[in-house]
Design goal:
60s Ribosomal Protein L30, Chain: A; five-stranded antiparallel beta sheet; elongated
């Protein structure tokens, strides 16, 4: 048991400052007389999970030592409130730990394969926040994992994008020297664990992986030669999508690493502070620029019924518009509609919410130019599928001043094709609109031609022409003030009206 000093500051306590680093204990609200382990900071930096060993309020078990999940919330003054036991269904008689949480906090992943509240075997489980509370953790299969994993201990984490699982284990039951693997969630299934490249995995033990919110920067522990203790924390960045090519791992240095076993490193999307364990306590350390992950954009908002503005629980997906590939998934809070997604720079994204009985109005965010970390508020609207409903088709792009569809539009139009295929009796009217730049004759023709181009694309995908009508209205039906560029952008649009359901 670790020994506490008599003089304990209520909140954060500065431990030392050395070579530009400031190591700050999160204080007695977070730390206890028992060992804290495996901290996990949520991507928005507002909630901290940790494991407390043998705490008197842990779940009692006569057969196993207690290791339960606790959490603390960041208060408005920047300090952390009193840590709380997470309770059932996340804490059981087994060793419990959070291995990841969706960026919005509405999906949680824990260590161990569970069914109906009972531990079944080594593996992973997921729980969803519903209106009535959290679902019982349900195990999910990672192909070949059970046969490959033969070590006594494991360490895992899931990306904030919900679709990348990094794992550390040994395939040799005689040795507990770990290697790091990755599994990708695609088409409703996880892939077989893929061993990362030789710069990450060595003859030494490499483990406790944490993938930052950019899905590129990996922090992990290793006892490879050249470190400061029994294990040190390293950082490396992925160079491509093979997961084999990485930058040379960089030891984070003697101010972070010590002569002890340093591991379990976590960092929020902002990349400003590291959270880790020092002498059994959770501490935070201000990150240096060269140690930070790549900058990202945190998008938050609410999923709303476009007609009534009521909040909705929905599934959220975001895609790379250039390839149409899914970049991540999330869910909105079923009571408030609140969601958070994290978008790394360097791509043009489409993202949407999906719920039965609604048409997803997608949003676009162009992040090709890399800037610094920032947060953006953006509500996502779902239009009820009913006669008379007018729905804007976002993420539809034409060549400047022309009616030629750009390839980036196909992904969005495929959603409309799916709607029409799912509702074979549905008929829609497609309308084109412009801003007030240019003469009436030009605008009227351009808007008609663009609406017609959408009809042509839909019929090329097998939609019967009799179900589609179209027209253009030029500048006469604005939805925003043309005096501002933002208003002009809103007025340049294509939308459809459900004529028959």
């Amino acid at each position: 048991m670790k020994i506490k000093l008599l003089a304990i500051v209520l909140f954060a306590t500065r431990l030392f400052s050395q070579a530009g680093y400031e190591v700050v204990s999160l204080g007695s609200n977070v730390n206890s007389n028992n060992y804290e382990m495996a901290p996990y900071i949520t991507p928005d930096g507002k909630k901290l999970f940790m494991v407390k060993a043998d705490h008197p309020e842990n779940t009692k078990s006569p057969d196993y030592p207690n290791q339960d999940i606790w959490f603390s919330k960041k208060m408005s003054d920047g300090n952390w409130d009193k840590a709380q036991h997470l309770g059932f269904p996340f804490n059981t008689s087994r060793y419990s730990s959070i291995i990841g949480q969706s960026s919005d906090g509405n999906v949680r992943y824990i260590k161990g394969y569970y069914s109906k509240g009972e531990y079944i075997k080594s593996g992973f489980s997921v729980s969803y926040l519903k209106t009535e509370g959290w679902t019982d953790p349900k195990g999910f299969d990672v192909p070949k994992y059970a046969k490959m994993q033969k070590s006594k201990t494991v360490s895992n984490s899931i990306s904030a994008s919900n679709n990348i699982l990094v794992m550390a284990f040994s395939e040799d039951e005689k040795k507990d020297e770990h290697d790091i693997y990755v599994s990708i969630y695609k088409d409703d299934d996880w892939s077989k664990p893929l061993k990362l490249g030789p710069k990450i995995n060595t003859e030494s033990s490499d483990g406790t992986p944490f993938l930052a919110s950019d899905n590129v920067t990996l922090y992990f522990s290793s006892d490879r030669p050249g470190g400061y203790g029994s294990a040190d924390i390293y950082m490396s960045k992925r160079l491509d999508d093979t997961w084999q090519n990485w930058t040379d791992p960089v030891n984070l240095g003697p101010q972070i690493n010590s002569n002890a076993w340093d591991a379990y490193f976590t960092i929020p999307a902002a990349g400003d502070y590291f959270y880790m364990i020092k002498d059994g306590d959770v501490v935070k350390i201000k990150a240096k620029e060269e140690q930070k992950p790549n900058p990202v954009v945190l998008v938050r908002g609410n999923v709303l019924n476009a007609k009534t503005k009521e909040p909705l629980g929905a599934s959220i997906s975001y895609f790379d518009l250039s390839t149409g590939t899914e970049s991540g998934i999330a869910t909105s809070n079923p009571k408030t509609g609140e969601y958070i997604i994290i978008l790394p720079y360097g791509k043009n994204y489409s993202f949407k919410a999906t719920q039965s009985g609604f048409y997803s109005i997608t949003e676009n965010m162009n992040l090709l130019n890399v800037l610094s970390y920032k947060e953006i508020n953006k509500n996502l609207l779902l239009s009820p599928i009913e006669t008379g409903q007018v729905i804007r088709i976002n993420n539809i792009f034409f060549e400047t001043g022309k009616s030629i569809l750009k390839s980036e539009s196909y992904f969005e139009l495929d959603n409309l094709v799916k709607l029409l295929n799912d509702n074979p009796l549905m008929e829609i009217f497609i309308a084109g609109h412009t801003d007030n730049v240019g003469n009436d004759e030009y605008n009227n023709k351009l808007s008609k031609d663009r609406a017609a181009a959408v009809v042509t694309h839909l019929t090329s995908k097998g939609i019967a022409a009799l179900r589609l009508t179209c027209d253009g209205f030029g500048k006469v039906k604005p939805v925003a003030d043309n005096a501002r560029e933002e208003g002009k952008a809103l007025n340049r649009r294509v939308e459809f009206t459900i004529i028959k359901k």
